[in-house]
Amino acid sequence: MLLAYVPILILLIVVLGFAISNIIISALLGRHRPSEEKLSPYECGIEPTGTARERFSVKFYLIAMMFVIFDIEVVFLYPWAVVFKSLKLFGLIEMAIFIIILLICYAYIWKRGGFEWE
Amino acid sequence: MLEGLVFIVMGLIAIVCAICVVFQKNPIYSAVFLIQTMVSLAVLYVLLHAEFIAAIQVMVYAGAIMVLFVFVIMLLNLSSGDVEGGKDKLILQKTSAIILGLILFAVIGVVTVKTVLHGTQGEYTPEYISRIGNTQLVGKLLFTDYVFPFEIASILLFAAVLGAIILAKKEIKE
């Protein structure tokens, strides 16, 4: 039974090997001539303005919360999709009710400005 | 044999990572170890022939829930001084935590040793599940026998959205 997961194991080994070997190879082959410019935090070429350790706005958390909720909605779609044919019309109706309730939810978020970045 | 070996290895990884979550000074490192704990638990779900739950564990817990954890760390944004300071103030908490932890450990140990687990095999044996397919069986049961809890789940998600919007957006509308 576990033999079916050998590809995942191979992927895991390749990913880990790639990451670790990159660190080792760059440490071995790279030149180390640090200067003040090189060691300063790289921020897309823009001069850093202050520390990165500032408190983030709760707006980010709100977006993450919405993401989790609609992610869980999608989770229910997976088991529904695999048995969709055997459920016939009943399955379509019950999923329609589920989606409509969450669409009302979506409309509510939109109306309250949950997606607006002010 | 192979499954037993995988169980021991992944169980050990899960326990070690869980311990690391508690002992890390930097909360972001704790979050990374928590991801590893959750992925190890997903492997344990696979060993229990619960492939659907394993996939959900990785997708929802290691993916979505961890995003929330990291955001909470960023929102609080403890500087290193906040983390290091106040070490001596926690003596009472530490001693009581150790005593209560030992009591819990003893109770779990006694119960594990004393209890003899015996039960009758249910309707859904591993052979039956592997013949139909784990996700198919979950889908079949969820959308026939447990259709009411499924529809209630959408109401629950709605309630979660309401709570989030009202808590985070209350300053927009008076």
TrEMBL record, chain A:
UniProt-recorded name of the protein: NADH:ubiquinone oxidoreductase subunit 3 (Chain A)
Q: Which HAMAP family match?
A: NDH1_NuoA
Return the GO cellular component terms, semicolon-separated: NADH dehydrogenase complex
Membrane association type: Multi-pass membrane protein
The text of the family note is:
Belongs to the complex I subunit 3 family.
Location comes to: Membrane
Q: Which GO terms describe its molecular function?
A: NADH dehydrogenase (ubiquinone) activity; oxidoreductase activity, acting on NAD(P)H; quinone binding
* TM stretches of this protein: 6-29, 60-83, 89-109
Per the UniProt record, one Pfam family is: Oxidored_q4
Q: Which UniProt keywords apply?
A: Cell membrane, Membrane, NAD, Quinone, Translocase, Transmembrane, Transmembrane helix, Transport
Q: Which InterPro entries match?
A: NAD(P)H_OxRDtase_bac/plastid (IPR023043), NADH_UbQ/plastoQ_OxRdtase_su3 (IPR000440), NDAH_ubi_oxred_su3_sf (IPR038430)
Give the principal location in a single coarse category. membrane
Q: Establish whether keyword Repeat is in the entry.
A: no
Tell me yes or no: is Transmembrane helix among this UniProt entry's keywords. yes
